[in-house]
Amino acid sequence: MIYTVTFNPAVDYVVHTDGFGADGIARASKESIFFGGKGINVSRVLHELGVPSVAMGFAAGFTGAAIEQGLREAGLDTRFIHLDSGFSRINVKIKAEKETELNGRGPEIDKRHLDMLLESLDTLEDGDTIVLAGSIPAGVDADIYERILMRLAKRDIRTAVDASGQLLLNVLPCRPWLIKPNDAELAALFGRESITTEEAAEYAAKLQEKGARNVLVSMAEKGALLLDEQGGVHRAAAHKGTPVNSAGAGDSMLAGFIAGISRGYDHALRLGTAAGGATAFSEGLASREDIERLMGIRS
User: Which residues are CB-neighbours of 227 under 8 A, at least 6 positions away?
Assistant: First the structure.
């Protein structure tokens, strides 16, 4: 089974407007609501691909209840820890001439509820996969992903981490099966503002030296790069299309990669790139139909 963990799930309120500025009133021409968070996005795209998963994490307040209900109505299996106070965050995404995002802070998670999540991971079995994705809310230490990997270390469980900064660096000594930085996150880890595709391979190799077994780098219009644990370097060009939505493309790539890994690295990278592209060209997350269409273009 595949498990995804989202510490800070969200209600994403997406609003389209013809004009948006710091002053005045802007009126929506179109609006949508999505239930997300990076791990949840992975579960949703896995579901589109016919791959079952369990979405885990924390839910709080009326927004947490809405997230949980919405995911279950969409056919996802959920296993959230319910917090006693606060509410799951609301992210406002404004699409006008430029794209603007205002992401909520999220609830505080106390030690008791955090321990409940850690204890629930003891039910994972050999052969399972766990995805740790996204930021962590206030009150949670930056070593939490490291603690989870250490708790699972004695079992044969694939661990995939999609995080940035210190949150990612902390897990490397635990030898995660897969990490998935994007090129901007990879550059930031080494004090760079940006990197070329050639430099991405160089820096990804440095993360392998620090402990990551496989490194998948999403690079938007520059495609994707995978350094596998056997020493192979795999590249995939980006699909051509009109970008509509930048949110969730990396999560979709990760879902596609995990869904395709049983058929080898090259297939997994192709499926991941197709899933990421399908999301980038859609208003929401990728549909199976759009993923398969992009896969067919390369077949």
Answer: 201, 204, 205, 208, 214, 215, 233, 234
The answer to whether residue 162 is catalytic is no
Q: What angle do CA 151, 175, 150 make, to 5 degrees?
A: 10
Would you give the DSSP letter of residue 182? B
Going from N- to C-terminal start, the domains of the chain cover 1-37+52-130
Q: How confident is the model at residue 24 (pLDDT cuts 50, 70, 90)?
A: low
Closest Cα to residue 65, out of 88, 43, 42?
A: 88
Q: Which of 12, 128, 228, 251 is catalytic?
A: 251
Decide: residue 45, CB within 10 A, 0-12 exposed, 13-18 middle, 19+ buried: buried
The domain defined by 1-37+52-130 folds into UDP-N-acetylmuramoyl-L-alanine:D-glutamate ligase (3.40.1190)
Question: What pLDDT digit, counting tens, does each position of 230-241 carry?
Answer: 999 999 988 887
Q: Please write the tens of the pLDDT for every residue from 72-85.
A: 999 999 999 999 99
Q: How far apart are CA 9 and CA 92, in angstroms?
A: 13
